Amino acid sequence: MNKKSVIKGRGAQLNTPNRFFEFSHETRSDFLEYCHKEGENADKNKTLYLPVFPKTIVNKVQSPDIGMAYSMNMYQGCEHGCIYCYARNTHEFWGYSPGLDFERRILVKQDAPKLLEAHLKKKGWQARTIVMSGNTDCYQPAEKEFEITRRCLQVFLKYKHPVGIITKNALILRDLDVLIELAKDNLITVNISITSLSEDTRRILEPRTTTIKKRLETVKELSENGIPVNVMLAPIIPGINSHEILPLAKKVSELGALSVTHTIVRLNGVIGEIFTDWIKKTMPNKADKVLNQIASCHGGSLNNSSYINRMHGDGEIAKQINKLMVLARRKYFKNKHMPKLNNDLFKPYQNGQLKLF
C-alpha cells in the first residue's frame, strides 16, 4: 500500500462528480503542490453532520430481492466508509458525491421518531416489519451523538410494532434494555454484518466500523439475551474474503447466531469507479485479479442490476461461493432458524388510539 496516497480513515479515495450536476469540482495538482510547499492540508478530512427535514420516514421497498417490505433511514450517508457500499449512489440525490462526500457529509433526520409515530398512527396501517436501515447504518458514529435510533426503538416498543435492524456497529448494545423488551413479545430481529475475521481486512474495507472482535462479542451478547441474530456475510468479494465463508459461519453459529445470509459484491453505478480507484491504491498487487473475478460473477461487468441475479451472481466463481454458503448452513445451522415476528400486538393501536374493550 502506498500510504502517502491514501486518505487515512476513509474508504473512498476520491470524490466522483455528481451525475446530476452540469459542473464538477476538481483538485488540481498545482493546488496540491502549493499546499505542500505552504505546509497546509489540501483536505481537512472532517465529518459534517447536516440536519435535514423530510416529511416522511418510512419507505415502501419495491425491489423483490431485498427481503424487506418497509425500511427507514435516520441518516443519509455513512461515516463507516465501507468501500463497496451500494448506498453510495443515493447521495447524489441529495446533491453530493458518492465518494468521500458519502462518508463526510452525513444528513441527520432528527424528526425521525416523530415521523415514525405519525406513520404508525395512520388510519388503515397494517403492522409489517419496518427495517432500520435499508440504506445506511442506523448505528453509525452519528448515532452516539443524536440517539435517533434509540428513540425510534422506543416508539416501536410503545406501539408493540415489529422492527428489524441492520448494523455492523457494537453501539447497538447501548440499547440492549429496549431490545430485550421488544424481544419478550417477539418484535425484534437483528442482522449483524460481518465480512471478515481479519482485522487487517476490516480496516481497509470498512475503515470506521466496529472491530471484528467487538462485532463477534455483539452477536454473542445479543443472542444470550434472547434477541434473534442473523449474520450477513455481505458482501462476499472474490479474492478478498471469499475464502472465509466456512470459518465465519462456524464462528458466528458458535456465538449464538440463528442464521447466515450472503450477497456477492456488485459495484453498481459509479461505485465501480470508486472501488477500482481504491483497490489500485490499497491492494495494487491483486487489484486486477479481484476486479476480474468480480466481473466474472456478473457477466463480465462490475455491476449487474437485474433482480435476483445481482445479489448472488452467476458464473463459476459465483457458483462456488453459493455452494459454500449452502454447505455452511447445512453444517453449522442445522435446526436453527430466525423467528417470524409478531404482527398481532399492534392491532389495539390501529387508527391512532387504544381500544378500550
Automatic annotation (TrEMBL):
Record-annotated Radical SAM core domain positions: 64-301
Transmembrane as UniProt keyword: no
Any Pfam family the entry gives: Radical_SAM
One function term, GO molecular function aspect: catalytic activity
Coiled-coil intervals: none
Keyword match Metal-binding: yes
Keyword terms, alphabetized: Iron, Iron-sulfur, Metal-binding
Domain of life per record: Bacteria
InterPro entries cross-referenced by the UniProt entry: Elp3/MiaA/NifB-like_rSAM, MJ0683-like, rSAM, rSAM_sf
Name of this chain's protein: PA0069 family radical SAM protein
